Fold this sequence. Notes:
Helices cover 19% and strands 22% of the residues. It is an alpha+beta fold.
Amino acid sequence: MSDCLFCKIAAGEIPSDCVYSDELVYAFNDIDPQAPRHFLVIPREHIRSCAEVSAENSAVVAHIFEVIAKLAAELGFKDGFRVVSNCGASAGQSVEHLHFHVLSGRDMTWPPG
Ligand code: 5GP
Ligand code: ZN
């Protein structure tokens, strides 16, 4: 989508701090980190949110979780990490391109706010 911030980041049209990249997904550090490590993993394909995951596009979501597990191991997140996807305005989604926050490096509370 031409006016989507995360499509532009995945395409390299807007600079970002890359954590991982392949033909299907892109991961980059969050510009406003909420933990000592906080990055986002996104599909290169424009999917608006978790609510638009379907049988046609869900393979990339499985791949995203494989990438998250690989990065967590490589980055030494042995004390734990959190994966979050906000879906819709009331859940706090501010960018309408599916993304998974990966946070680590501090104790987290539950329930989330
Ligand atoms: P959401 O609020 O939709 O769950 O998450 C969007 C995330 O994208 C936020 O954590 C925000 O800090 C991050 N973000 C917004 N704009 C940019 C940007 O231009 N670059 C980077 N690296 N992160 C961004
Ligand atoms: Zn997009």
